[in-house]
Amino acid sequence: MPVVPRAVVALIESFESLPGIGPKTAQRLTYHLLHAPQEVAQNLADALLRIKKEIVVCQICFNISEKTPCVICEDLSRNQKVIMVVEDPLDVLAFERTNFDGLYHVLGGRIAPLEGIGPDELRIKELLPRVQNGVVEVILATNPNMEGDATAMYIERLLSPLVKVTKIGRGLPVGGDVEYADDQTLMRSLENRG
Amino acid sequence: MPVVPRAVVALIESFESLPGIGPKTAQRLTYHLLHAPQEVAQNLADALLRIKKEIVVCQICFNISEKTPCVICEDLSRNQKVIMVVEDPLDVLAFERTNFDGLYHVLGGRIAPLEGIGPDELRIKELLPRVQNGVVEVILATNPNMEGDATAMYIERLLSPLVKVTKIGRGLPVGGDVEYADDQTLMRSLENRG
């Protein structure tokens, strides 16, 4: 019989399989849960089982939701004429903290040929029927890196014959420092001046 | 109905309640699990439920174990004459990677008056019957900080009339750099020379 109980090893390994959690953090989380009241581990286990049971993907915008269509797609008080295209559900969360009140379209990632992710692996073609329904603007809000830019360029080429396509601004972040900004960001901030 | 499904909020909050996991990490872990295959969340949930069911505290050394007495306390091939006193089960794990082959005694923390943890909250008095059973040496291996040192001092005073008490060496860590060592460590390394 090993010195470390099998159940402890199993929990450490489960934590380690998550992104950004190394062996030391996995150990510390496990021993924390061993000492914490029963409910802490129980609540976490319950929440884990619930997400797979209760969460569906909205069949209009492909965001995660409790039902389909999701609350955003069903909310007629939102601006139905603008669709913002994002990579992931976390991006929707981020823009919901701004005053944006249009609709979303969640791609489920970005075009990444090296990982075998092409346009067909994303929810890109599902955009076409949506923009033909009185939409006047599609805002591309993919991440500001090479793959995100390539994805935006692909979608722009596809949609620009049908609808006005814009991209979120690039430049210095609020609170940023010109002195420490990288060359690419400074170049973008110059192109984007006005 | 909220924009973020309740089950997702519940999981984010459960992760956030763990030490060292902030809101951003909790969000990222949750969305990772939403996209990961069903088994990943299921395995983590199972492991969480298992630790509380299968893990007990050894009634001799107070380490966590699958049964009591634990495998270390029951292993007669180990040196029964030496007991190492540590703060937590993780410390046992660390010393098991060395060539130490005696027994352990897990205090369950350290004396910390500011947190209301006195000697009675720890497994200190449980050491007394153990050292009267042919034990020739007790090695104190509490953490090298103020609270760990105070705990060691308390136990040393208690046990030194009964048995030889030693402390693990203090000094520069292997691979360390004299130039960058702090004053306290350098002073200890001088006192500990030989």
Write the layout of secondary structure elements.
Two copies of one chain form a homodimer.
Chain A: H1 6-16, H2 23-35, H3 38-54, E1 56-57, E2 64-65, H4 71-74, E3 82-86, H5 89-96, E4 103-106, H6 127-131, E5 137-140, H7 146-159, E6 164-167, H8 183-191
Parallel strand pairs in A: 3-4, 3-5, 5-6
Antiparallel strand pairs in A: 1-2
Q: What can you see in these coordinates?
A:
Two copies of one chain form a homodimer. Chain A is an alpha/beta fold and 194 residues long. In chain A, 42% of the residues lie in helices and 11% in strands. Chain A has eight helices and six strands. Chain A has helices at residues 6-16, 23-35, 38-54, 71-74, 89-96, 127-131, 146-159, 183-191, and strands at 56-57, 64-65, 82-86, 103-106, 137-140, 164-167. In chain A, the strands form two sheets. In chain A, strands 4-3-5-6 form a four-stranded parallel sheet. A two-stranded antiparallel ribbon of chain A has the order 1-2. In chain A, helix 7 (146-159) links the parallel strand 5 (137-140) and strand 6. In chain A, helix 1 (6-16) packs across helix 2. Chain A is globular. Chains A and B meet through helix 1, helix 2, helix 3, strand 2 and helix 5 of A and helix 1, helix 2, helix 3, strand 2 and helix 5 of B.
Largest β sheet strand count, sense and barrel closure of chain A: 4 strands, parallel
Strand residue percentage of chain A: 5-15%
**Arrangement of strands in the largest sheet of chain A:** 4-3-5-6
Query: Using DSSP, what is the number of strands of chain A?
Result: 6
Q: In one word, what is the shape of chain A? A: globular
What is the subunit organization of this protein?
A: homodimer
Arithmetic mean of pLDDT of chain A: 90
Radius of gyration of chain A: 21 Å
Greatest contact pair?
Answer: A-B, 55 and 55 residues
Q: Based on helices, strands and strand pairing, what is the structural class of chain A?
A: alpha/beta
Order of helices and strands of chain A: HHHEEHEHEHEHEH
Which segments of chain A are poorly predicted (pLDDT under 50) over 5 or more consecutive residues?
none
* Helix fraction bin of chain A: 40-55%
Number of helices of chain A: 8
Distance between the termini of chain A: 70 Å
